[in-house]
Design a protein that fits this description.
It contains ten helices and 13 strands. By secondary structure, it is of the alpha/beta class. The protein has a domain of 223 residues: NAD(P)-binding Rossmann-like Domain (Rossmann fold), CATH 3.40.50.720. The strands form four sheets. The protein has a seven-stranded parallel β-sheet, with helices on both faces. Strand 1, helix 1 and strand 2 form a beta-alpha-beta unit. The protein is globular and about 55 Å long. The relative contact order is 0.14. The structure holds uridine-diphosphate-N-acetylglucosamine. The site of uridine-diphosphate-N-acetylglucosamine has 23 residues, from helix 6 and strand 8.
């Protein structure tokens, strides 16, 4: 009963969590179909991790891995708002069917608790900032709907099947190992790659949209706290930093950090995009002991350093920590 399972554990956030759990001496079972995850992300902790290369849609395979676990962190998903609009079926299946399977397997297998990676996209456009958990959700994209359905399942499984669940709404997580190579990649990973390669990024819209960018290590600590806090089952918490920066401010800050001037290009706004995003973290602070440690600029500097070192490793032919900047 002391087994930890991380779905999506070979991904950017999942692998950071696996490293965090491994640093505590835990043995971790990862379920990941490697569709967006990468085993290189787990290289440093390979001897403490068992990887099950299964798809979350495949109940019969994932159920035995989940059964009897002490804690399950459900981070496996097909991310990206635009991807869910371009091609909604795979993200629906992974994010809704896959999530249902995880909760079902956890309830059947008497798991101690499931911590679910929900998304700030559930809020959609709200008139009031920061966004607080008591606001009515207004999902704008299939991705936002899918992630919200997962929250509803988390609460329903807590109520109806006596399964402990906690949902954390992630707010634009960034950090080392975020893969910048796809058009669906998180904006900061794309900005980092552009900066290092001295190229202009394309900003969709006027660049005045804002995000509560949250450094991955703060999210890892909060995930672990959410897995242990008392009296929180069935609840939903914002897992953000509490600040917000526009894309224009962010690109400017990155240029300042790097000491370069590279004007951004501008393209049409992206369908399904939320305008502003900022977390009210009062509940997470009070009930989970959330305490973000990294300012935005600290997180950007650490991430930039990592991408640069990764590129240098690649160029010198050594094995990289992750497949980025290809
Ligand atoms: C959304 C969720 C986030 C979730 C993520 C999963 C919100 C507020 N946030 O992130 O919680 O984890 O989905 O994928 O809904 N952009 C550019 N140029 C680029 C790429 C992106 O300007 O090359 C812009 C986008 O149009 C958007 C912003 O950057 O306005 C952030 O985009 P992205 O990093 O993809 O994340 P969200 O869609 O905000």
């Amino acid at each position: 009963m002391n087994r930890y399972v991380v779905t999506g554990g070979a991904g950017f956030i999942g692998s950071a969590l696996v490293r965090g759990l491994s640093a505590e001496g835990r043995r971790v079972h990862v379920i990941d179909n490697l569709s967006t995850g990468n085993l290189d992300n787990l290289e440093e902790v390979a001897d403490q991790v068992t990887v099950h290369e299964y798809d979350l849609r495949d109940y019969n395979r994932i159920a035995p891995v989940i059964a009897g676990a002490y804690r399950v962190f459900h981070l496996g998903a097909l991310p990206s708002v635009p991807k869910s609009i371009q091609d909604p079926v795979p993200s629906h299946e992974a994010n809704i069917d896959g999530t249902f399977n995880v909760f079902r397997a956890a309830a059947d297998g008497k798991v101690g608790r499931v911590v679910y990676a929900a998304s700030s996209s559930a809020y959609g456009d709200t008139e009031v900032l920061p966004k607080v958990e008591t606001m009515a959700p207004r999902p704008k994209s299939p991705y936002a709907v899918q992630k919200l359905v997962g929250e509803y399942y988390a609460s329903a499984f807590a109520t109806c099947f006596d399964l402990e669940t906690v949902s954390l709404r992630f707010f634009n997580v960034f950090g080392p190992r975020q893969d910048p190579t796809s058009v669906y990649s998180g904006v900061l990973s794309i900005f980092m790659k552009c900066l290092i390669e001295r190229r202009s990024p394309t900003i969709f819209g006027d660049g005045e949209q804002s995000r509560d960018f949250t450094y991955v290590e703060d999210v890892v600590v909060l995930l672990i706290k959410a897995s242990r806090a008392n009296g929180v089952s069935g609840k939903v918490f914002n897992a953000g930093n509490g600040n917000r920066y526009t894309l224009n401010q962010t690109w400017k800050l990155l240029q300042k950090i790097e000491g370069v001037e590279i004007p951004a290009l501008y393209g049409p706004p992206r369908p399904g995009d939320v305008r502003d995003s900022q977390a009210d973290v009062t509940a997470a602070v009070a009930e989970l002991g959330h305490q973000p440690r990294f300012t935005f600029e600290q997180g950007l500097r650490l991430t930039l350093e990592w991408y640069r070192a990764d590129l240098a490793r690649k160029q010198s032919g050594r094995k990289a920590g992750a497949s980025v900047l290809v």
